[in-house]
From TrEMBL, chains A, B:
<comment type="subunit">
    <text>Homodimer.</text>
</comment>
<dbReference type="Pfam" id="PF00043">
    <property type="entry name" value="GST_C"/>
</dbReference>
<dbReference type="Pfam" id="PF02798">
    <property type="entry name" value="GST_N"/>
</dbReference>
<dbReference type="InterPro" id="IPR040079">
    <property type="entry name" value="Glutathione_S-Trfase"/>
</dbReference>
<feature type="domain" description="GST N-terminal">
    <location>
        <begin position="1"/>
        <end position="32"/>
    </location>
</feature>
<dbReference type="InterPro" id="IPR051369">
    <property type="entry name" value="GST_Theta"/>
</dbReference>
<dbReference type="InterPro" id="IPR036249">
    <property type="entry name" value="Thioredoxin-like_sf"/>
</dbReference>
<comment type="similarity">
    <text>Belongs to the GST superfamily. Theta family.</text>
</comment>
<dbReference type="InterPro" id="IPR004046">
    <property type="entry name" value="GST_C"/>
</dbReference>
<dbReference type="InterPro" id="IPR004045">
    <property type="entry name" value="Glutathione_S-Trfase_N"/>
</dbReference>
<protein>
    <recommendedName>
        <fullName>glutathione transferase</fullName>
        <ecNumber>2.5.1.18</ecNumber>
    </recommendedName>
</protein>
<keyword id="KW-0963">Cytoplasm</keyword>
<dbReference type="InterPro" id="IPR040077">
    <property type="entry name" value="GST_C_Theta"/>
</dbReference>
<feature type="domain" description="GST C-terminal">
    <location>
        <begin position="38"/>
        <end position="170"/>
    </location>
</feature>
<dbReference type="InterPro" id="IPR036282">
    <property type="entry name" value="Glutathione-S-Trfase_C_sf"/>
</dbReference>
<dbReference type="InterPro" id="IPR010987">
    <property type="entry name" value="Glutathione-S-Trfase_C-like"/>
</dbReference>
């Protein structure tokens, strides 16, 4: 599919981060809270995983690209109107994440961390890496982030986000790479 | 979430079609082939369900809106350039569906129908309803559609797609409804 991430386990290859997480979770029989057996709790994880594709994931990725990556590739910033629209959409999605999913719970699904939190936090770290203050003025979301970091372990959390948190320091792209990626990039700024 | 479909089962409400299907499948203990216990087969269903959100679903929906629904709401067709771009993207996605998912198998995941086929066919019926010839020149995909229709049962298949197959005959939208839906509609044609 020419996409990352991809998993290769022996002869078996698999794309799509959500499918890969579910595969690993089943293969290694991880603790139940990651993807609960309980019918309704499991449905809440599924609901989040389905919802995020066209909302949080889309808008976090667009924020990163419009704020940092496209300027690096194109050599000039995207229009202020487009950037403002992208950040406004991200803001609306963060509000939904807080109001409809997190609510007053410790984690997105309830009192334990689940795959939903893991998928959500990795997306949110994209605009954070781009310098967006996604947790500012959102104390509930900020406290949740701390709980996720503590549940995963601070060292692992920092290691997992090391590259994305340094993305602002990316050197200008090599012209050959730039040329190759351009068609895909232009599709992204539509 | 102000979205359809939504499920209400006693006090439990759930959004997202994929989450709803998985919930019903687990609650009513349907035959294994819909969402196999086998680790790799299950991962293939998950892979398709994750993939389709931003690809087949997006492009089928856009084709329907750009070809039929927006003209009904706006009272004029979308620009030929935009419609052509939308249909070209749909075509690319259909190619991926055929090459990467269906390949030479009877169904998307293997020799049996699964949730992947069900989700895929309902999306494809959107551009079909809009008058796009999505199966023309694609004999493999057309044969697969026949197998899905036979597996589901022809009567149920026709009943499930009755509304979408008549969408071309929609009367012009009521001005009040038009006004209300306009902001969301304008976001859709970007």
């Amino acid at each position: 599919m020419k996409k990352v991430p991809a998993l290769k386990d022996g002869d078996f290859t698999l794309t799509e981060s959500v499918a890969i997480l579910l595969y690993l979770m089943r293969k290694y029989k991880v603790p139940d809270y990651w993807y609960p057996q309980d019918l309704q709790a499991c449905a809440r994880v599924d609901e989040y995983l389905a919802w995020q594709h066209t909302t949080l994931r889309r808008n976090c990725l667009r924020a990163l690209w419009h704020k940092v990556m496209l300027p690096v590739f194109l050599g000039e910033p995207v229009s202020p109107q487009m950037l403002a629209a992208t950040l406004a959409e991200l803001d609306e999605t963060l509000q939904l994440l807080e109001d409809k999913f997190l609510q007053n719970k410790a984690f997105l699904i309830g009192s334990h961390i689940s795959l939903a939190d893991l998928v959500a936090i990795t997306e949110l770290m994209h605009p954070v890496g781009a310098g967006c203050q996604v947790f500012e003025g959102r104390p509930k979301l900020a406290a949740w982030r701390q709980r996720v970091e503590a549940a995963v372990g601070e060292d692992l959390f920092q290691e997992a986000h090391k590259v994305i948190l340094k993305v602002k320091d990316s050197p200008p792209a090599d012209p050959t790479i730039k040329q190759k990626l351009m068609p895909g990039l232009l599709a992204m700024i539509r």
